[in-house]
Amino acid sequence: RSKIKIRDLDFFYNDHQVLSCINETIPENAITAIVGPSGAGKSTFLSLLNRLWENIPGSRIKGRVLVRFSGKQCDEFTDINAPGFSAIQLRRSVGMVFQTPNPLPMSIFNNVSFPLKLAGIKKRAEVEERVTKAIQASGLWPEVKDRLEKKATVLSGGQQQRLCMARALVMAPEILLLDEPTSSLDPASSKKIEDLMVELKERCTLVMVSHGPEQVKAISDHVIEFLPES
Ligand code: ADP
Ligand code: ADP
């Protein structure tokens, strides 16, 4: 079953066309890997799935990015770039994890509760429950349960990346975008993130940019390859 359909998609930074006539289907509850050489447009493609590209002056999209959000009729797709579709709704449905862990300069607890704060979810019991569950889902709970008030920067790089996963998961996203989530980590930490991604297929559709052929082979169900810039 497909979760995202990309139709006749072109993308430009000013006059520079980065993506040209892309047609792809991304399956639900699976890991899709985006591969290709540096400069091929992989990160740009991810940014089209959560409209992050809108912040870049001179950027322009043509074509459609269609998402089947849960709770809708089973074959109803929404064009996330259509004028009526709200970016706020998109922020709640799509989580993102970057290449380098980017914890906020605050406590471990507050890093994970931050998206809830932005969404106006303030009830203490609910916040505590959702933060605890997200940290548990990230596999980090035993390592941090006694130091939730400590700054996130006390954690190792691998732990910080799992914290960033927890921060994305606290909103229970339907889609999780990951831009080379393990490329700044040592092998043991990478393996933990990979295992976590496989577990998350149960409740998420994952789209990952990856540079590692072994990683792609080991954990992805579907591959989209972008060719070098012409
Ligand atoms: P990849 O992730 O495959 O390395 P990117 O999506 O980062 O590729 O970049 C694709 C092309 O778009 C490159 O030529 C890059 O220089 C260009 N590009 C990326 N970001 C911007 C930007 N903010 N403004 C202008 N050009 C950009
Ligand atoms: P602020 O940054 O505004 O000072 P706090 O650090 O007190 O806020 O935390 C904000 C909310 O997060 C509080 O309402 C509290 O319920 C919750 N919180 C913070 N730390 C913990 C913790 N270790 N366990 C449970 N809840 C916590």
TrEMBL record:
SUPFAM superfamilies to which the protein is assigned, alphabetical: P-loop containing nucleoside triphosphate hydrolases (SSF52540)
Q: Which domain of life is it from?
A: Bacteria
Name the InterPro entries on file. Answer: AAA+_ATPase, ABC_transporter-like_ATP-bd, ABC_transporter-like_CS, P-loop_NTPase, PstB-like
PROSITE patterns in alphabetical order: ABC_TRANSPORTER_1, ABC_TRANSPORTER_2
Q: Where is the ABC transporter domain?
A: 4-227
A GO MF label = ATP hydrolysis activity
CDD domains from the entry?
ABC_PstB_phosphate_transporter
- Per the UniProt record, one Pfam family is ABC_tran
Q: Does the keyword ATP-binding apply?
A: yes
- One GO term of the cellular component aspect? membrane
What's an example GO BP annotation here? phosphate ion transmembrane transport
Q: Keyword annotations for this protein?
A: ATP-binding, Nucleotide-binding, Phosphate transport, Transport
Q: What is this protein called?
A: PstB3
Query: What's the name of its gene?
Result: pstB3
